[in-house]
Specification:
Two copies of one chain form a homodimer. In chain A, strand 11 and strand 12 form a beta hairpin. The first copy, chain A, has three domains: 41-112, Winged helix-like DNA-binding domain superfamily/Winged helix DNA-binding domain (Arc Repressor Mutant, subunit A, Orthogonal Bundle); 120-227, NAD(P)-binding Rossmann-like Domain (Rossmann fold, 3-Layer(aba) Sandwich), CATH 3.40.50.720; 231-275. The first copy, chain A, has a seven-stranded mixed sheet with strand order 6-7-5-4-8-9-10, sandwiched between helices. A three-stranded antiparallel sheet of chain A has the order 1-3-2. A two-stranded antiparallel sheet of chain A has the order 11-12. The longest helix of chain A has 26 residues, at 229-254. In chain A, 41% of the residues lie in helices and 15% in strands. Chain A is built from ten helices and twelve strands. In chain A, helix 2 crosses helix 4 (80-90) and helix 3 crosses helix 4 (80-90). Chain A has helices at 20-25, 43-61, 69-76, 80-90, 102-112, 128-135, 138-141, 172-179, 190-202, 229-254; strands at residues 66-67, 94-95, 99-101, 120-124, 146-151, 160-161, 164-168, 181-186, 207-210, 223-226, 270-271, 274-275. Chain A is of the alpha/beta class. The radius of gyration of chain A is 24 Å and the shape is globular. At the A-B interface, helix 2, helix 3, helix 4, helix 6 and strand 9 of A face helix 2, helix 3, helix 4, helix 6 and strand 9 of B. Chain A binds a DNA duplex through residues 6-7, 15-17, 20, 42-45, 68-70, 79-82, 84-85, 87-88, 92, 94-100, 273. Chains A, B: Residues 51-90 bind DNA. Chains A, B: InterPro entries: CoA-bd, NAD(P)-bd_dom_sf, Rex_actinobacterial-type, Rex_DNA-bd_C_dom, Tscrpt_rep_Rex, WH-like_DNA-bd_sf, WH_DNA-bd_sf. Chains A, B: Its main location: cytoplasm.
Chain lengths: 278, 278
Amino acid sequence: MTSHGDDVQGGEDRSGTGDRAAAKESPDVEVPAARERARAIPEAAVARLAVYLRVLSGFDEESVTTVSSEELAAAAGVNSAKLRKDLSYIGSYGTRGVGYEVSVLIGQIERTLGLTRKHSVAVVGIGNLGHALANYGGFPSRGFPVSALFDLDPDLDGVPVGGIPVRHVDDIVEVCQEREVTIGVIATPAQGAQEVCDRLVAGGVSCILNFAPVVLQVPDDVEVRKVDLAVEMQILSFHVARRQQDAATANGADLGPLDGAGPVPAEMDSVNGMVVRP
Amino acid sequence: MTSHGDDVQGGEDRSGTGDRAAAKESPDVEVPAARERARAIPEAAVARLAVYLRVLSGFDEESVTTVSSEELAAAAGVNSAKLRKDLSYIGSYGTRGVGYEVSVLIGQIERTLGLTRKHSVAVVGIGNLGHALANYGGFPSRGFPVSALFDLDPDLDGVPVGGIPVRHVDDIVEVCQEREVTIGVIATPAQGAQEVCDRLVAGGVSCILNFAPVVLQVPDDVEVRKVDLAVEMQILSFHVARRQQDAATANGADLGPLDGAGPVPAEMDSVNGMVVRP
DNA sequence: CTTTGTGAAAACATTCACAGCC
DNA sequence: GGCTGTGAATGTTTTCACAAAG
């Protein structure tokens, strides 16, 4: 039910719980109640919990034992009301008038995010990015040991990268089953990505982090998140454009209502379906 | 205005327009009207427009000249209503009963995203990830030429990576101003990131893509997006946990509506502020 | 008849503001 | 006094469903 047909995968969107199918398939029972707990946490809040966890780890290393919602929120870059709301989804672990105990909060967030269990990771596509991912210290240190690497290139077969020998993509199914890989990272070019994805799924992998610029087709019980650098850049580009346009129109507006549209290119006059200049 | 204090930066969240500050600072004029156009496009829709653009480019290469909302939506992994709504934000460029002309749509989305102008990119931190980014073909091919690389390591000074010589981070301000860099990519470890960010901003960079696991402090007129691999993994982990838990509770619930709440822990009755069981 | 474009409704997420507890 | 936890209010995004257009 997660990440099926509609909804752009991972990366940017992050809205909608992705659980519409569950509601549809049993119209008799309104709310299954028992399986609500985890589902009840908004997708957006889950993402922030991961950020809080990192910030809390920092506090913990500095031997800070207690934080207020205000402090934690500031460090995480959110406002305190949102932080308290997010934490309320996982339970009440604060003390009124005092704040939260860092170690308790770390434990509860880890439990909620399922980090008490190790998730072994496979990286497919050992090019520039795959290399970087295989060597990325952030994975193992946070409970995500990289336990398999794959590439199409036979020359790489057996070559160790970051201490792990690369295997051929033909072995994906076998190796993933054997090592109980739960998370597959796709760092291949676009062409191979769907095929790789299919093999990962056949190997029992239920979560995929996709760096390839394609929309993957997966069964309903597989979760996909997408990181697309080009998309990120284009979103930034949009904001540059908006800012420049704002600045341009502000110039025209400040000096009273003379022409104002002087430096604006010709095709500018109809944007967004609204005629801006008569 | 964009990405200030509240709101987790980039990456996950992507909600809220981020323009609250603009509204606050001029309480006299209710809606400035002229600077509305681009702002009116929801953040989430902007991200999807970038995806549509990639899919459309694919169609274009296959010499497909016309697509319906249904086809395009399927290829982009969204539902057609959402796609049409998204496209409606940038104008009416379809033909009822027929569909959209691929080339027209590509042009309009590029214009909306500000891709008619080149954005030169600087990458800071030439480690594993920085290397991958410097060599990443997706940037230049999509109008984002990488025009500067920086690293702290003096040994790298002058060494070409992907054809571009690495410069020392001390030169960031100077080089960014000189080459009119608009987008800065931070691929350094956490420690250096804020300092690097400050220099990029001093060098006139108004958009930052941050791979370092820290929340950056920036002026209101700088846009930050964050890509955090550990966070992505943890979100996936959460979904694994939720699925397993669902499966476990489903075992207890399948056998008809006898007690039904049997295996539910005590704290279950109040979730999300609503009493689930009477 | 097919498909777009879009108001209106529903779902979702954030912020407010304050009761309740320490 | 200070801070958490949370209903209620507000704002945003998605979905529905259908009139308008070719």
